[in-house]
Design a protein that fits this description.
Helix content is about 35%, strand content about 20%. The chain is α/β, with parallel strands linked by helices. Strands 7, 8, 9, 10, 11, 14, 15, 16 and 18 form a nine-stranded mixed sheet that branches. β15, α14 and β16 form a beta-alpha-beta unit. The N terminus is likely disordered. The structure holds ligand BES, manganese (II) ion and zinc ion. Ligand BES binds next to α13.
């Protein structure tokens, strides 16, 4: 089935963000420390109502203020200036209607108010017969940079839609369909190498990992922009379902593995931002798309695979499949000596054990690049944590019969050894950074429902925009 995206983001921005309206109900943002001072300027009736409601401007809480006629006059909103996600509490708590923020916000806050509101309106309703919830509408805050808001919301919703879609409807072919839809919409070029052609074209590891599935493996290769512009190449892990292969995962670990194409969803979303903002780069996206399946022709533990780069890999564990397909894609990306090579992948459970679901692990041998990304992460309020490419652990991947093993025998430092494996396929001169991401919210928070989630792409977009000004 060809890709059937719901275009959530377009719908959200069209329905729930609106132009100036004279009848919009004002929302008054108040921080906890400021509520007393604010109440002093209001009538005794208002003060009594606020007290009776128990409203103390706690972050995310609201208080509906009636006017003399009993209509909704204003909304008080507890704001935490340090947590932009507080804005996302509003849609679910407010009655249907049109609202505006009563105080002037600076551009960054205005953007966050609009983004937070929009992301709170996201629902994954593709498989539900009942209609989704209808939300209240926000008047665009005056200072908001609308283009930036829209491209951010669209990217975030694209990741959520792609990751939330069950594997049955998001195999390698449908993932390529989503890539192709993006290329069509944004004027990019797409080339896809499918099935046994991967062997002719020199992608043996992608073929080996994906060949056991009835859904053929492929390499998706997208390009945008001027060939002579600086080259930015994004590589995303596209494992459309990770059963673990013959070293099969247990039920509880396998359950969430429809999200193992999260890296691919992230690079498509990040590409959509870069293209929408017309950042002057030659952009390339490489997605090895496979299903890690079990069948008579599946690759096996202790098989030795060849790779695009020529290094041979002994398969210590067929569940360490992501690094195998990324090896071929990274080698191809690296071949044209890009100015920036970024990969995103749901690569290890170990990264999650170390940093939990919200913090992507970043690995890079390039300190300047890592520093730039951490600064952008701070500005974009998109947290990232750097972990080391600790060279002494490379020996954990030594193989007696091949150039390298894909899995270490110890339970230690799993995220680092995975990153060290990838590093073997990138030349030392290439500015390369690897992200080990979760791509999933295990529990719902306002604006961040349970399910697929984008991580690190707002930070990366900011870093790339900063390095390549218009
Ligand atoms: N897709 C998984 C990693 C994963 C698991 C990410 C759970 C997020 C949550 C990956 O392909 C995998 O199975 N990795 C193994 C590697 C091991 C066999 C060396 C892991 O992390 O256990
Ligand atoms: Mn795996
Ligand atoms: Zn995987």
């Amino acid at each position: 089935m060809p890709n059937e995206q719901t275009h959530q983001a377009e719908h959200i921005v069209r329905e729930y963000l609106t132009e100036e309206s004279t009848t919009a109900i004002p929302i008054v943002p108040l921080s906890r420390g400021f509520i007393k001072e604010w109440l002093a300027g209001e009538s005794a009736d208002v003060a009594a109502w606020v007290e009776a409601s128990g409203f103390t401007a706690e972050a995310g809480h609201i208080c509906l203020l009636p006017g003399a006629n009993g209509r909704l006059d204003r909304v008080l909103f507890g704001r935490d200036e340090d947590d932009p996600w507080t804005w996302a509490h509003l849609p679910a708590k407010l009655p249907k209607g049109v609202y505006r923020i009563a105080t002037a916000l600076d551009a960054a806050d205005a953007d966050w108010a609009a983004v937070g509101w929009s992301l709170a309106c996201y629902q994954f309703i593709r498989y539900q017969s009942r209609k989704g919830r209808d939300w209240p509408t926000l008047v665009w805050p005056a200072a908001a940079r609308r283009d930036q808001v829209v491209l951010t919301v669209e990217a975030q919703c694209l990741v959520r839609d792609l990751v939330n879609t069950p594997s049955a409807d998001m195999g390698p072919e449908e993932l390529a369909g989503a890539a192709s839809a993006l290329a069509l919409r944004t004027g990019g070029q797409i080339r896809t190498i499918v099935g046994d052609d991967l062997l002719q074209e020199g992608y043996p590891a992608i073929h080996a990992v994906g060949r056991a599935s009835t859904r053929a493996p492929r390499l998706i290769d997208l390009k945008w922009g001027d060939e002579n512009a600086p080259k930015v190449t994004l590589v995303g892990k596209g494992v459309c379902f990770d059963s673990g292969g013959l070293d099969l995962k247990g039920a509880s670990n396998m359950k969430l593995m429809k999200k193992d194409m999260g890296g691919a969803a992230h690079v498509l979303a990040l590409a959509s931002m870069i293209v929408a903002a017309k950042i002057p780069v030659r952009l390339r996206v490489l997605i090895p798309a496979v299903e890690n399946s079990v069948s008579g022709n599946a690759f096996r533990p202790l098989d030795v695979l060849s790779t695009r780069k020529g290094l041979t890999v002994e398969v210590g564990n067929t569940d360490a499949e992501g690094r195998l397909i990324l090896a071929d894609a990274l080698a191809e990306g690296d071949r044209e000596k890009p100015d920036l090579l970024i990969d995103l992948a749901t690569l290890t459970g170990a990264a999650r054990t170390a940093l939990g679901p919200d913090l992507p692990a970043m690995f890079s041998p390039n300190d300047e690049l890592a520093t730039d990304i951490l600064a952008a992460a701070d500005d974009a309020k998109d947290p990232i944590w750097r972990l080391p490419l600790w060279k002494n652990y490379r020996r954990l991947l030594d193989s007696k019969i091949a150039d390298i093993n894909n899995a270490s025998d110890t339970a230690y430092a799993g995220a680092i050894t995975a990153a060290l494996f990838l590093q073997e396929f990138v030349s030392p001169a290439t500015p390369w950074v690897h992200f080990d991401i979760f791509a999933w919210n295990p529990t719902a928070r306002p604006g961040r429902p349970e399910g697929g989630e984008a991580m690190a792409i707002r930070a990366l977009y900011r870093m790339i925009a900063h390095r390549h000004p218009l």
